[in-house]
Amino acid sequence: MDRGDLEMAARLFGESSKLAPHFKTFELLGECLIRLNRNAEAVAPLAAAVGLGTKPFRSLYLLAQALHGIGVNDWALGKLDEALDLNPNYNAARELRETISALHPLQKSDD
Asked: The pTM is what?
């Protein structure tokens, strides 16, 4: 991943996650997939990272990125809220939340 070979890194993280599931392995796999613009594929490993982590604010942030990338913005905003609940000073999560909110304001129904 550090060398920029994201395809190789994703393959190795995927293999590693099958041998010994760990939240960081899933998180890094998801990050690689996002950087490869494979957001839909990133959702499952990032959700696994959230489930396995004890304070998964970075995993939640990455999951929100992937969800935003596939157009599931309401869920992305919810994941960012969870990340900010765990770490209120997480500026990247706050900035992404502001960006998504500005691009996709909630529509009010005429009930």
From this structure: 0.91
pLDDT in tens, 23-57: 999 999 999 999 999 999 999 999 999 999 999 99
Map out the domains of the chain as residue ranges.
6-103
Beta-carbon contacts of 24 under 8 Å, excluding residues fewer than 6 positions away, are: 49
Assign 3-class secondary structure to 44-104: HHHHHHHHHCCCCHHHHHHHHHHHHHCCCHHHHHHHHHHHHHHCCCCHHHHHHHHHHHHHC
- Asked if the 6-103 domain carries CATH number 2.40.50.100, the reply is no
Are residues 39 and 70 in contact, defined by beta-carbon separation less than 8 angstroms? yes
How far apart CA 105 and CA 96 sit, in angstroms, is: 13
